[in-house]
Amino acid sequence: MISMNEFGNNLYSGKTSFPFVGRRRLWFIIAVLLVLGSILVPFIRPVQFSIEFTGGSQFMIVGPSSTNQGLASDAVRSVVPNATTRVAIVNGKDVRVQTDQMSPNQTQDVKNALADAYKVQPKEVADSFIGPAWGEGVTRQSLWGLAIFLALTFLILGIYFRTWKMSAASILGLLDVLVITVGVYALAGFEISPAAVIGFLTILAYSLYDTTVVFDKVRENTTEDADQMSRTFGESVNLAVNQTLVRSINTSVVAALPVGAILFIGAFWFGAETLSSISLSIFVGILVATYSTLFVSAPLYAAFRQNEPAILAHDNKVLQARERAAATVEV
Fold first, then answer.
1. Which among 278, 297, 296, 287 has a CA at the least distance from the CA of 202?
2. pTM of the predicted model, to two decimals?
3. What number of CA atoms fall less than 13 Å from residue 292's CA on the CB side?
4. Which of 35, 112, 305, 328 has its CA 20 to 30 A from that of 260?
5. Regarding predicted confidence, which is higher, 309 or 11?
6. How far is the first Cα of the chain from the last one, in angstroms, to the nearest whole number?
7. Which residues, including other chains, have CB under 8 Å from residue 33's CB and lie 6 or more apart?
8. Do residues 97 and 59 make contact, with C-beta atoms less than 8 angstroms apart?
9. For 223-260, what is each residue's pLDDT tens digit?
C-alpha cells in the first residue's frame, strides 16, 4: 500500500491520474441531476424562511414546566383559531413560538394563554414583533449582496486570469455550490435565516478560494504546455486538477472538521440554534465546493476552450506526434 506522500507525488507527476476532464460528460450529467434534485426539493418539502424574512410575532417561554410543543399550538389557536404556528425548542429547555402578525390585543392574549399552558408567570413569556417591511428589506439586501458578490467575482477573476471563460466556469461552479447547498439545507428541514445566508456567502467565498488555486495551476500548466507536444489542452487541465487534488482534499477536511464539531456537538447537543443554522450551511457547502471545483468548474473550463482554433491546432499536433512515435516503435 502506497503512502500518502507517494500518492501525492504520483498525482503530481501524472503517474496516477483521475479523469476529471476525460469523463466530464458523466460529471456534468451528475451535476445537472444534483441541481435539478435540489430545485425540486421545495416541491417535496417546502422551504421554511425564518421570521426575519416573513415577518410576524414571536414568543419565548423561558423555563417552562414542560416542552410539549402541542401546548403552544393549542394556546395560540385558542386566541387566533386560524393562526399559522411554528414551535421550536431552544437550548433544550425553552420554547419559541412564531406566528403570523398579530394585533397588540391578540399578542397580549396569546402571551397570557402561553403562560397558563406552560405554568409560568406572564413575565416569563417574552414577545417581539417583526414587520413585513423589515423582512422584505432583509430579503432584498441578501439578494443584492449575492448579485454584487457574483458580479465582482466575475470581474476580478477575468482580470486576474485574463480570460472570461475561467470567470464563467467559476461562476457556474459557485451557482452549483449554492443551489445544491440550499437544497440539502431545505431537505434537512432547517429554516433559512440571516445566519444561514451568512453561511451561504461564506461557503461561496471558500469555493472561490478553492477554484482560484486550482485554476492558477491550470493556467500554469496550459501556458507551459502550449509550446510543447507532450500533452493536449484537456490533458494539461486534467493534470493540474490532479496535482492540486491532495491539497483540495486536505483543505476541505481541515475546514470541515471544526465546522462539523460545531454542528454535531455545539448545535445538536447543546441546542444552539444560530450555530446550527450557520454551521450546517458551511459544513455542506465545504463538501459541495470541493466537489464542484474538481468535477464542474475545471472540466467546464476545458470544454469552453476545446474548440478554439489555437487549441485545436495544438491538440492535432500532439496527436499526430504520438501517431508518428507509435508508428516508429512498431517499425
1. 278
2. 0.80
3. 31
4. 35
5. 309
6. 38
7. none
8. yes
9. 887 777 778 888 889 999 998 988 888 888 888 888 88
